[in-house]
Hints:
By secondary structure, the protein is α/β, with parallel strands linked by helices. It is built from 3 helices and 3 strands, in the order E-H-E-H-E-H.
Amino acid sequence: HMVLSDAPKRLIVVGDVHGCLEELQQLLVESNYNKNEGDEVLLVGDLVNKGPLSAETVQFARENNFHCIRGNHDDFAL
């Protein structure tokens, strides 16, 4: 359980990344994501599987302190 105590400048919500790290990174570029300006990212399920870079996607999310909600594909990977 986590509560965002201070409202972020923007909360960018992305679902079903499925290990497609490059596409996620491109989406963040196109949305002008800027963590230094207070933007936060919430990944809503299925961060892994199907795509080619599942482990790297999880690492990227952790390194950038993204908030994540575990999906069924994430459960299967565990």
